[in-house]
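Notes to self after the call with IL:
- keep both proteins in one doc
- input above output, always
- annotate only the second one for now

Protein 1:
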Amino acid sequence: MHVGIKLGVGVAGVALAGTVLGAGGAAGAGEQPPPRPAQQGAQAKPPHDNEEGHGPGAIKVGAKGAAKAMHRLMVRDELRQRWCHGRVLPSGGLNLREGPGLRYRVVRVLKHGSQVTTDWDTVQRRDGYLWVRLPDKFWIADYKTGDGNGKWYIRYSDCH
């Protein structure tokens, strides 16, 4: 059985630390294919940190900002923007994975300041993060939902 939910974020976006984020997407609750096993020596080793974004630098939004971000994701908005451009915030980088979740293999770690383009029609909420696909079909966790104090790993500058 496959259940899907369409989510969206308004064009106005969420204003965080002087940055306006505008995005939207779809989340699916269906089963994903199992991750491929890691090939010995092929996987880049992420820094020793249990979080997808490594080191300081993420934009922390506090409880009110997290609630606002999650509410906007639940409201369908036909004017949402699909492609969003931004830069990796955490000083130690951000994991790039084969799929949308922690069970997928880390392909490499994107360096701080790396430019990314995300497809917000693919956004999925899983394992305490919002996952979005990049044009190369790999995935990043660009938002950590946390315990009411979420944080963004990407500083978005352009969504169209």
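Protein 2 (the one to annotate):
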Amino acid sequence: MPTFFFDRWLSPSEWEQAVRITVTDGRIVDAIPNATRESGDEHHAIALPGLPNLHSHAFQRGMAGLAEHAEGSVDSFWTWREAMYRFVDRLTPDDLHAIAAMAQVEMLEGGFTRVGEFHYLHHAPDGTPYADPAAMAVALAAAAGETGIGLTLLPVYYAQSGFGGAAPTHGQRRFVYGLDGFARLLDASISAVSPLPDAVVGVAPHSLRAVTPTDLATLPTLTTGPVHIHVAEQMKEVDDCIAWSGARPVEWLLDHADVDPRWCLVHATHMTEIETERAARTGAVAGLCPITEANLGDGIFPAVEWQAAGGRFGIGSDSNMLIDATEELRLLDYGQRLTRRVRNPLAGRGSSGARLYRDALAGGTQALAAPGDAADFMTLDPNHPALVGRDGDALLDALVFAAGRGAIDGVWRRGRQVVAGGRHVSRDRIAERYRVTLSRLLA
């Protein structure tokens, strides 16, 4: 029964001093402030809960930087997608394991302690199902078991290539399922993650353009877990949805689905004021991925309006172009500053860093159905130059805006240390396997 003593600890509501924490079976069973340090306690100066990464496509870590050459006179999300299809063509389950483990190592080192894996790479390279329909999910679970990260697996349902039932393209052949096959995939996915402590399985209709209205109504009934969907990421998607239905994507979704706090609306970049207010009232979480959204030229989420409407949000690493929890928060905030030409637009009357961190923690925990008492936390280096002389919320301001992941010294998952001195305990071995895998794939 490990015990920890933190000089300063960020609880869900406030900073607490001299906190003694007891962990049993990976969960925090006691957190006593103003306590006395006892013999055998592991001591650290500053500790805070790890952040949930609510949206990841792990395999895309292997193509980071490979699509930064313009394809023709106008490069876009849609040309990037073709590059992604070319990369995904060659991946085996072993390849996915190697790439996902490397991504998860970087997530843990960067402050993420649980990942929501929006998993749509299901079939063999020729599009035929594996003998085990969850072979790729088994690879993701094996990576999580190796790295120690918490896993919320979100098997993706993908049935068409565009609004109105357009047939899937050749590049989508590894993603496509019908409802009966997908139900079997869900069962197999539950088995795949069963060896992992506190793993969760939800469901993910890929997007309104990739599922039929009938299937969208059925999918949430197949699980009691979270429901995630891409929506309104690109203006072309908005225009195509209007051409198909006469409504914008978020508008259509709210009119035709029972969106509630189980749901995570990933990106939701392009919303009107009315859509923003309606979506916020459902209690759904907005899944924001500012690094990827910037890289793909998606646009900037209306975070100030969402916040004013009482909306909840979490952050994700999405394409895993760059994996850094603090950078996601910083870019989210800076996007609002740049478009509005003001400072601290999301702070309310307090600290920007604290508001961003606490809101992303609460929203991500909800979106991933993560256990709230898991002993998932990180410690900060009190001697980092950006943290010197700071206390309370000023520590979070310094972490998000001045220090970044370089201030993260240690990370624990379920009370077990997985990052020490800023490095994952298995980084060298996992990184070497990743190098061998990528060298072969990109030869």
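Annotation: Residues 93-109 form the longest helix (17 residues). The CA atoms of residues 32 and 269 lie 41 Å apart.
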